[in-house]
Amino acid sequence: MKEFLKFTLASIVGWFVAGIAFLLVGILALAGLMASASSESETVVKDNSVYLLRLSGTVVERYASSPFDKYMGAVQSPLSLTDMLASIRKAKDNDKIKGIYLEAGSLSCAPATMQAIRRALADFKESGKFIIAYSDGYQQNTYYIASLADRLVVNPKGSIAWHGLSQQTMFLKGLLEKMGVEMQVFRVGTYKAAVEPFIATEMSEANRKQIQAYLDDIWSQMVGDVAAARSLTAGQLDELADEHMDLQPAETYVRQGLADTLLYKDQVVDLLVEQMGVEEEDDLELLTTQDMMGIQRNVPKDMSGNIVAVYYAFGEIDNGVDDSYEQEGIHAKTVIADLRRLRKDDDVKAVVLRVNSPGGSAYASEQIWREVSLLKAQKPVVVSMGDYAASGGYYISCPADWIVAEPTTLTGSIGIFGMVPNASQLLNKELGLRFETVKTNRLADLGDLSRPWTPEEKALMQRSVDQGYELFTLRCAEGRGLSQDSIKRIAEGRVWSGLQAQQLHLVDELGGMDRAIAEAVERAGVDRYSLVSYPSSRSLLDRLADVGMERYIEARLRTSFDGYFQSVSWLRRLKEADRLQARLPFEGVIE
Length: 591
What we know:
Layout: H1 2-39, E1 49-60, E2 79-80, H2 81-93, E3 97-108, H3 111-125, E4 130-138, H4 140-146, E5 151-160, H5 173-179, E6 182-188, H6 196-199, H7 205-230, H8 234-242, H9 250-255, E7 261-262, H10 265-276, E8 285-287, H11 289-293, E9 307-314, E10 317-318, E11 330-331, H12 332-344, E12 348-357, E13 359-361, H13 362-378, E14 381-390, H14 392-395, E15 402-405, E16 410-412, E17 416-422, H15 424-430, H16 455-480, H17 484-490, E18 495-497, H18 498-503, E19 509-510, H19 513-524, E20 530-534, H20 540-564, H21 570-576, E21 580-583
Parallel strand pairs: 1-2, 1-3, 1-8, 3-4, 4-5, 5-7, 9-12, 9-20, 10-11, 12-14, 14-15, 14-16, 15-19
Antiparallel strand pairs: 6-17, 13-21, 16-18, 17-21
Helix pairs in contact: 1-20, 2-3, 3-4, 12-13, 16-17
């Protein structure tokens, strides 16, 4: 039955995807050739240049743009955090770039990402160059970033969102019951709340407690930073949040100190002209992030042969290889092979492992843990945590020599769960299907969706989960130099902010990628070195040669589907997940 449904669905999707592929292939190929020719050109920076940093779109850790992106639907291509941070550094170092113009729109990113962007802008300001920010309507996260601007401008009919943080969980048990599906859950940990949406209709007190704790911590960070930048107190900002600034008249923002002035967008150009000391708009040169990436950094070439490697591991953890066009995902077999090459390369003196992951397969996490441990035995390994380094993300981080996290990183979540659907009611009663099984051994059909699990099968699964939890906590204890009992006291699946995790000795230091690199260099004991990012970005043509046009289009369509229908995208991820999971909940966006 499972194979029949799988084959039928695959056939429908295949015909649909193939039709689109044949329709677009000619256009896409032409666009690719044109873009390839233009992408190789180097940006020449002119006098009186300003970096136009648009805070609009979805920010991911790394993203290799494609000339095909614009043809793949309404969903905007992701923004690369790595490229944004590199562009801000280049703007700081280039004498011809006089300032940054922040144009804030609708930005989707987690708190640690917005904190990293804001820190880079604060470092830029230390050069004495200006930052001017403008928006028709600041979101709360873009306002947090823009609050350090020298001039913060809002449209006279615009808005500033400032209302506090919330996180909503959608519970699916009622829907599943109507479908005739029961989720059979096996877990360890009071706080392992990833399974709650599938087995409950309301939030447990333990889960509510942990969410409230890290939301309060993140909000405190945001309020403190904005208060310092805008010469306000934390109390004042909390009072303004309680009044829900989003719906207040624009004049209120200036009166309350949230903004400096009200201007229409065309007037902001006049402000830039005045700030730059030029005569007219034509004398300004605005550089986008794409332009900035074409600027060569003025860094002397190191001839020592020493390499400090930055390895990016971001996305969900699985046990496969990187065989799809999707650029996000920690595919264990690929990551292990990459780390092994870094371990055996004598020119690589230290490795910074950049982890931005909610976790995933417990088995795959253990295999990556093994390779990180072997790497650490040969050379220093420093972890830099991004938005998430939780559950499996923490599993692969814990053996490092040193761990650096953002204050608002979500980490910990040390726990294991397994989840298996029982679709007997859906298949037998609702659809009228009947199954009979012939087997040679008592448990040969364990995992059959057409029937509930027996007590013996459930006991076996729970034992497997318990063993996984014991191993996970042991790995954490060994990596952090703590007793396993002390790890268990702060584990049980509980999620911690980076600030809380430092106090619990789960991480060593608070900071961003630059701090992690500095620590790795110090531990390597090298004076001169080259910083090299891994894995290297593969060209569009290379990826298409590997996966084919059909799979490329399928991946882009699936991205579009997930973006519009996030409430049901968990179905795909659940289907593709390993039986034992070490990960954060499938849903849960901080807003």
